[in-house]
Amino acid sequence: VSVDILAEKVKRASELIDFCQTKLRATETEVNKIIKQMEG
What we know:
Blueprint: H1 3-39
């Protein structure tokens, strides 16, 4: 595997991780809101 291809794959993986973390944070926020409503 060439270094260029490897670098491209690492960059793509990093972008996907950022995307997933953003989605997870948004989901966590929504779930917490729902739990607070249920408790309230």
